[in-house]
Amino acid sequence: MTMDALRRSGAWGGVVEAFRERLALPAGAPTITLLEGNTPLIPAPTIGDRVGADVHLKFEGMNPTGSFKDRGMCVAVSGAVASGSKVIVCASTGNTSASAAAYAARAGLRCGVVIPEGQIALGKLAQALIHGASVIPVEGNFDDALGIVRELAETGEATLVNSVNPLRIEGQKTVAFEVVEQLGGVPPDIHCLPVGNAGNITAAWLGYTEALEVYGVDRRPAMWGAQAAGAAPIVRGERVERPQTIATAIRIGNPASWDGAVAARDSSGGTIEAVTDAEILDAYRLLASVEGVFCEPASAAGVALLLNKAAAGEVPPGATVVVTLTGHGLKDPDRVVQEIELPASVRAELDAVAPRLGL
Ligand SMILES: *Cc1c(COP(=O)(O)O)cnc(C)c1O
User: Is the pLDDT of residue 7 over 90?
Assistant: First the structure.
């Protein structure tokens, strides 16, 4: 059955069930699922008018733990269980740990997460804690944390569930299958998304490549990746020792899937460009205020890039553009309060409230 038919029938069983034969899972692997995937592709007519294109938002914030990481994590954890592993570990800028902790709880595994201290949005930290993960903040950045868990996993006692685990990429490629189905069997012309550790752009490109065969489509989109200006190693062509950006989910100076991102960019005739924090925050507020879609700051980077390209006259008129919104805005409410001041209280009387509303 197609995804659309499954959705209509109410029988959606999650990424592993829907796409198992495409996922390179060992035979007999269990289906560990929180019914992830099948996320909405939301038309964005106001932003579309502004850039002169047909823009759709693939809102991955609607996954069970609020980010696209679930799409890969369900497959990685299903694989970990199949291999007899009892412990999973990851480094995280937040969402990987939230997702790993939830799926570990679901599967009855222990979960260890190593995070850069003081740099994780509160919502994500809360998720890892409530799902019972062992959370270990380190005095370093994401790249340091990833180095540690890679070594930990080499002992063979724990399975690494960062996107260097190929099953993460396998799961995340399914976003492309869904987009093709949701657009009625055709790929978009352009697919925009934020780039941090670069697993997701690698995975989406793999998915579009497989879609040539799976859906019999005859072309693939140009992949447009956005890095934060203070954490843009791929754009600059060199590692960034101390990456800086308010978009903490993409605060990464040495992406593990660097080669995959470059291959996706070059084979697709795409681009990977930097967007400033100010541009990211403008796009973040625009998405919420004109389209009604609340994503986290890093997620808005793809829209920021699309707006920049439109301003430069580089968006082909009428192109179909899909932008992945990688995570939900509720992960990081502190950011809103820093951006927009909460008004002072007034007396609880009509004559005090009405003027505030200009009524
Ligand atoms: C993980 C993450 C990214 C970056 O994805 P990569 O695969 O590391 O490039 C972007 N946005 C959000 C919200 C994320 O959680």
Answer: no
Largest CA distance in the chain: 69
Q: How many of the other CB atoms lie within 10 Å of CB of 276?
A: 14
Q: What is the pLDDT of residues 113-135, one digit of tens each?
A: 999 998 899 999 999 999 999 99
Q: Give this prediction's pTM.
A: 0.96
pLDDT at 22: 96
**Residue 226: CB within 6 Å of ligand 1?**
no
The tokens describing 13, both together, are 């069983």
Q: What's the average model confidence in pLDDT over 213-236?
A: 97
Q: What is residue 20's predicted lDDT score, i.e. its pLDDT?
A: 96
Ligand 1 atom showing the smallest separation from residue 198 Cα = 9
Cα–ligand 1 centroid distance for 95 (angstroms): 8
Rg (CA), the chain: 20
User: What is the per-residue pLDDT for 3?
Assistant: 67
Residue 1 has pLDDT above 60, yes or no: no
Could you identify the residue written with the tokens 């299958």?
177
pLDDT at 8 over 90: no
Residue nearest to atom 8 of ligand 1 (CA): 197
Residue 55 β-bridge partners:
321
Closest CA to ligand 1's atom 4: 196
- Output the pLDDT for position 4: 64
State the average pLDDT over residues 336-340. 93
| Residues in a beta bridge with 58 | 41, 324
206 φ, ψ to 5°?
-60, -45
How many angstroms separate the alpha carbon of residue 37 from the centre of ligand 1? 16
CA distance 9 to 211: 23
For a substitution probing ligand 1, which of 124, 141, 200 has the most ligand atoms within 8 Å of its CB? Answer: 200
> Residue 307: which H helix or E strand, with range?
helix 301-311
Inter-CA distances, 24 with 27, 28, 175, Å:
9, 11, 16
Q: Whose CA is nearest to atom 15 of ligand 1?
A: 95
Helix (H) or strand (E) holding 98: helix 95-107
Ligand 1 centroid–CA 315 distance in Å is: 24
